[in-house]
Amino acid sequence: MTVPLLDLTTQYESIRGEVDEALARVVQSQHFILGPEVEALEAELATYLGARHTIGCASGTDALLLPLMALGAAPKSHVIVPSFTFFATAGAVWNAGLEPVFCDVDPETFNVTEATIEAAWTERTVAVAPVHLFGQLAPMAPIRALAARRGAFVLEDAAQAIGARSADGGAGTLGDAGAFSFFPTKNLGGFGDGGLVSTGDDALADRLRKLRVHGGRQMYHHEVVGTNSRLDALQAAVLRVKLRHLDGWTATRRLNAHRYDEQLQGVSGIRVPVVAPGNRHVYNQYTIRAEKRDALREHLGSLGIGSGVYYPVPLHEQECFRCLGYGPGDLPVTEALCKEVVSLPIFPELGEERLSRVSEAIRTFYA
Ligand SMILES: *Cc1c(COP(=O)(O)O)cnc(C)c1O
Fold it and tell me: What is the number of the ligand 1 atom nearest to the C-alpha of 133?
């Protein structure tokens, strides 16, 4: 019995009838870019998220980029981002003509905190982009308060956190704008690239809708320079079907996490994920800290068990950001996590038997 890190085929098979019907409807319409299918998805997601505005776009990366473009900040203004995240969080900042300033994360939750953000603050800081890493919200109330005191924009990177909540509210509704990704491996994944921005700000929503179609409301009349970042109707059709199943899948991810927590409890050499009080984690990844991480992964691999390392290299040590002047030792928690973290299979179709096999393999390794 092998255990893949992720299996999208089984999920497709479980909803094949509905998905194929939705795809056929779009093909029949021959309306592929934006249009009624995308508008329907935007409306359904606005309701699901509790967001005033939702703007579909071409990817999660663009869902970060567009609000940063809309800011209209002076070139090279600073945006504080965690170093322990997927590259796009910082890449979008750079591509908007701004400069990422890297901050560290909490060693327990892997998320930025008010304190780690404050430690990175500069005179040129115009925005902060907290990431809800692996599906758990960063502590948004204190982060929002800090940003409000200093007049900075808050962009939530909610790419991994659709449906995640705290007592404060849901992912993507706790800052000035939220970025979601529909990359196939995300909890709500399309059959290709896709993304969405949420915001409660009417004027910002208006600017975002313009920016995704080359900066004009009317064809061939451009008020600002935007880009091509549209969501296509085939993706929207798939996502509308999957959205109906999302809460069920999330519940199973959470059940899987609960089972791992129990089965891995007391294994010396690892630390299971820590959920901050009041948080509803949606487990896009179930990520543990492990001693001898690479040897553990080899052991799992030899038993046919998949695992992943998110992320092996801190962003502040990436070659492309060498010009920013960071070095080893600058963000010690991030640097330690990159050497210790490993993500285990957590997808909804995993099942109890395969999950127990993963736990057993980990217990054996450390025994
Ligand atoms: C996936 C992801 C993105 C980018 O989304 P794409 O749709 O792949 O462009 C951004 N930030 C984080 C944290 C992600 O996990």
Answer: 13
